[in-house]
Specification:
3 domains; Growth Hormone, Chain: A; mainly alpha; globular
Length: 530
């Protein structure tokens, strides 16, 4: 396994350690994708319900989000390397539970709760360990590799899960996940732990408020995504808890008492803009990742495998550009690369808008996806390093926790907003077209409106034809025609989310260009956090 990485090794690039950290990030991101594409098979094999499995998925996202800021502090108290190991073991527990589960209860307890707690430890500790084990250009390269690994996992996860679930078993997919975690743990001796020298007191009230804030906001977003009720009340609880957390932290800081997160982090323009840009990037990725697979599967009627292959230009260009940009770290200003990244993202998404109504195969999307993927690759190669490199070792866990929380929230928010807009546009368009139809009589028009009000969803024309089998042929043809016209418009509306967020990112990048470039480590602390 090799000797532990020491200070001398940290100054260079330990390639094996970099790959192991990237593998850990890949597993973390791909886990939920595997679960999403396995829902039907899990329901069938365990004799449970779709809503039960979906609840487990939502619970895992909720637990990881609610405790991620607490997890960053736990890393300080027990050691970042130990928190990293505990996070990996939590994920391994969840993967093994899925491999051998005989009931939904095991999935809820071991995959959702234990795995969710593992994620809350793993994500901030991993970023802290990159910060502590690599410096200078090597640190930028590893941040780029880890970021690229996360992005490609989000893009190819459904493809991997779809292939394994279709041709082998969903249990094999999770067993392989456990094997990857075992490989990552086999190289743990290469990780150099960085001792925490700050105050070791625990801010219990801050921890509770952070869990309520993140949990309330993310639960509200998840409920919104599923079309549930009480969204406003949940978001309000999260927002109130967030305001209370900010006031609590400021009050504790004024009295020089230990805090969960040092408010001084947010006084740094570099940190604020870095976290904001990270969240925008993830909102854009979430919006694209709900709109594009739906287009491929519902409009072009591709199966999961063909849809995944059609998205390969996005994921592969993202991965390749992130690695290339990371390898050439230091030759360009980070702000310039972030500006180029958001600009390419905007150009790629804008090019998709006119293609969507005309595309007859996934090949029509290839060039815009390469452009958008190249932009995302530039972003993932820069933003983590930009945000965290100026932070001192004492504060890096807190900063990584905030950075991770912003990214997790951004991805959930992008998925929810784009999905809600898409279904809303579908319902409005379908109802409008049905009302204007000369083929459908008034009673049929009302039936269409009621059906959409109860269960608006995108359907392929094949699915719709099966549903309308008992209707007269002219009614079938009319509703299929309306569906054919309305779906691309609804998908175009969903793509406006990553487009608008990309434009906001361009504005943020212009601001970044007016700031000084971050300087690594605590030497920059006076300038960055003074």
């Amino acid at each position: 396994m090799g000797a532990p990485a020491g200070p001398a090794a940290a100054a260079g690039l330990d390639r094996r350690l970099a790959v192991l950290l990237a593998m850990a990030m890949f597993v973390l991101v791909v886990d939920t994708s595997l679960m999403n594409v396995s829902i039907s098979a899990v329901v069938r094999d365990l004799g449970t319900t779709v809503s039960g499995v979906q609840s487990a998925i939502a619970l895992e996202a909720l637990v990881s989000a609610a405790f991620i800021l607490v997890g960053s502090k736990v890393g300080d108290l027990v050691g970042r390397k130990r928190a990293y190991v505990l996070g990996l073991l939590g994920y391994a527990t969840g993967a093994l539970a899925m491999t051998f589960a005989q009931s939904l209860t095991a999935i809820v307890v071991l995959w959702a709760v234990v795995g969710g707690l593992g994620a809350s430890l793993l994500l901030p500790s991993m970023q802290s360990l990159v910060h502590g084990n690599f410096t200078g250009p090597a640190q930028k390269k590893v941040y780029a590799l880890v970021g690229a690994s996360a992005s490609i996992a989000a893009a190819v996860g459904p493809l991997i899960g779809g292939f394994l679930t279709t041709y082998l078993s969903w249990r094999v997919a999770f067993a392989l996940e456990a094997v990857v975690i075992a490989v990552v743990l086999s190289g743990i001796r290469r990780v150099r732990d960085v001792p925490y020298t700050g105050d070791r007191s625990v801010d219990v009230v801050g921890a509770v408020l952070s869990a309520l804030a993140m949990g309330g906001i993310v639960l509200g977003v998840l409920v919104w995504q599923e079309g549930g009720e009480a969204v406003g009340a949940l978001l309000a609880v999260g927002a109130v808890a967030l305001v209370a957390l900010v006031r609590w932290l400021l009050r504790r800081e004024r009295t020089d008492r230990p805090v969960l997160i040092d408010p001084g982090l947010f006084r740094s323009p570099l940190f604020r803009v870095g976290v904001s840009q990270q969240m925008l990037q993830q909102i854009a990725l979430g919006g694209a990742m709900i709109a594009l697979p739906i287009f491929l599967q519902m409009v072009l009627e591709y199966d999961a495998m063909a849809a995944g292959l059609s998205l390969a230009p996005l994921s592969l260009s993202m991965f390749a550009v992130a690695l290339l940009a990371g390898r050439r770290a230091g030759t360009r200003r980070p702000a310039d690369l972030v500006l180029a990244g958001f600009a390419l993202l905007v150009v790629g998404i804008a090019a998709l808008l006119p293609v969507v109504p005309r595309a007859t195969s996934g090949w029509a999307l290839a060039l815009p996806l390469v452009v958008a993927g190249s932009g995302l690759g530039l972003l993932v190669s820069q933003l983590n390093n930009y945000t965290l490199s100026p932070v001192s070792e004492e504060r890096v866990s807190e900063a990584a926790g905030v950075n991770s929380a912003a990214g997790s929230f951004g991805l959930s928010f992008g998925l929810a907003v784009a999905g809600a807009l898409m279904l809303g546009a579908l319902a409005v368009g379908f109802t409008s077209q049905a009302s204007a139809s000369s083929v459908l009589d008034p009673e049929q028009q009302q039936q269409v409106a009621r059906a959409l009000e109860d269960d608006a969803q995108l359907m392929s024309n094949t699915q719709l034809a099966e549903l309308l089998a008992d209707e007269p042929p002219d009614v079938q043809d009319e509703i299929v025609r309306i569906n054919t016209e309305v779906r691309p418009r609804a998908l175009q509306v969903a793509l406006l989310v990553p487009l608008a967020v990309g434009l906001a990112g361009v504005v943020g990048a212009l601001r970044m260009r007016r700031l000084p470039d971050p300087r690594p480590g605590s030497a920059a602390e006076g300038a960055a956090f003074g």
